[in-house]
Amino acid sequence: VTGSFEYLKPFGNISLAKDASPVSTSSTMCLASATKLVTCVAAMQCVERGIIKLDEDVSAWLPEWKEAQILKGFDTSNEQKPILEKAQRPIFLKHLLSQTSGITGLENEEVMKYYSAIGHFVVSPYIISPHSDMHQLVEPLVFEPGSDWGYGQGVDWSGQLVERLTDLTLEQYCAENIFKPLGMKDTTFRLLNHPHIADNLIKMSSRKKDGTLESADTIYPLDPKTDMGGSNLYTSAPDYLELLKSLLRNDGRVLRPETVNEMFDYRLPDSLAFTKFKTENAKDYLGGLATEGMTVDHCLVGLVNNEDSKGGRKAGSVTWAGATRCFWWIDRKAGICGFYGSQLLGIHDQQISKAMFETFERAVYEDCGKLSAP
């Protein structure tokens, strides 16, 4: 928090083995999509330094998207024949960061159908490893850039943009411009290059139908071809909290205060569908703390709740999460940020959601005297 209160506590063991060591504060986690915050900060640093503008066409550096096409459907007489039309709008950086570029990837059923039609190897939307080369993630858009909201690989392409703008790998850039200034010594995209980080890795697990846990293989490559800016960062809870605290306090260590404000205050146009989403569409991010009918929005780094929740976050709070059940949130009005990390696969695991929102987060707000009135 912005004051002196701080809480950090590990629970459980690093694996399901009987002789497994307990999790420690230095244990390593794969952030999955919670990686996106780091990449968004890197991209905003490039904006801050005048290398690119938020409303600038990215195809000068990402020529893969210069002649982007939009998937309009499939031929009624041949379902294996996609209907493609040339996009009329360019993709801006703000589109990539706010998930409004039209690049949805395997998160979209129509794109998965397209991959199948062209003979592309199709896997679960959450399995990134077969597509760890970004060149395999060039696909049709599903709408004109800036005209709708659709979750996908926009931030992964933002990471590629940072690489091409700076002539550094994303790992090199973030190490020098984010991890080093914040003292994040246990954070990397390249796990196998850092034995002290790899040795502390918590093993992945998943929940069976009966509610018990079983060991699971990681869904992300340990030695990726590309630093995936949307999914493949490894870190410890204290390291990640350093970034959250810096952004909450707006201390200028990685971004100027006005840049942080711009990043968090950005909103989608009212015409976009995402502004009409109700609580049930965002339950994995607001959980039991949401009020009935609460609407949400999206800034340049994550989901925004438009109203105070019924037990925690204030209006304007920002959050996102990952498929490994890693959650973060920043509530600038209350002066509170938090991170809940696990290595449990399953986007819709309600036991984790309950632990995160209805127990952990509520307790934090209560201890800080920031709990909303019932």
TrEMBL record:
KW Hydrolase (keyword) present: yes
InterPro entries linked to this entry: Beta-lactam-related, Beta-lactam/transpept-like, Diverse_Enzym_Activities
Domain Beta-lactamase-related intervals: 19-342
MF terms (GO), sorted A to Z: hydrolase activity
UniProt feature coiled coil, ranges: none
Keywords: Hydrolase
Pfam families assigned to the protein according to its UniProt record, in alphabetical order: Beta-lactamase
Family per similarity comment: Belongs to the class-A beta-lactamase family.
Name of this chain's protein: Beta-lactamase-related domain-containing protein
Organism name: Oidiodendron maius (strain Zn)
Taxonomy of the source species: Eukaryota, Fungi, Dikarya, Ascomycota, Pezizomycotina
